[in-house]
Amino acid sequence: RGGSASASLPPPPEPEPVAVPPASAGSGLVGEGRTVLVYGDECSALSEAVAKRCGGTVLDLSRLAAFAESDPSEEGAALLAVMAGGAMVPMKVVAPLMARTMARCEPPYVLNGFPRMGKQVRDLEAAVGSVPLAVRAGSASGGPNGPLSKWLAANGKVEHAASGCDESAVVGALDAMAAAGLVFTAVDARSE
Questions:
Q1: pLDDT band at 185 (very low <50, low <70, confident <90, very high)
Q2: Is residue 95 within 8 Å of 127, Cβ to Cβ?
Q3: Any idea what DSSP says for residue 10?
């Protein structure tokens, strides 16, 4: 009991860095816990602002088509063929290309105005993982967004209402994303 035993011991090794998985990463799907749906009459502007601030990627049908043109694949060819024909693009065509695109882009994935129907949300989640949050940008009580809003509520989805796309709406959406467990790639998404 005399002297200091700790002086003769070597310092402990540095801990290995630990990767933090996305929320609910159990499924192993590329978008699991990393995807937010932004819908409503002001979704485009809010989607762009949110993605810019959190280091994420905006995904919608036009961006998927651009990706399909720049990186040819069977999935992309199928999407482009349906769009060229003027038909509504079914989720069975969108989902494989969405998964392929997500695998090459930075999360979180901000779905801009698509999917538009509850069944499409469910089908997309089966392909890419859960969408833990939906942000309603502007009004959704009527028109084409009303049924989606009702489906989200009936299926226990977390929904955040954003009025407009000003600074407070962007910060509110980012706070809702953090509360829903979405992982941001930016160090501090709200500091710009």
A1: low
A2: yes
A3: P
Q: Each residue of 97-107: pLDDT tens digit?
A: 999 999 999 99
Q: Which two tokens stand for residue 26?
A: 């159990």
Residue type, 102: M
Tokens for 37, please give them: 């749906």
Contact residues for 151 (Cβ-Cβ < 8 A; gap 6+): 117, 118, 121
Q: What is the pTM of this model?
A: 0.80
Cis peptide before 108 (omega within 30 of 0): yes
CA angle 174, 144, 37 (to 5 degrees): 25
Q: For the residues of 82-122, what is the DSSP string, one character each?
A: HHHTTPPPPHHHHHHHHHHHHTTSPSSEEEES---SHHHHH
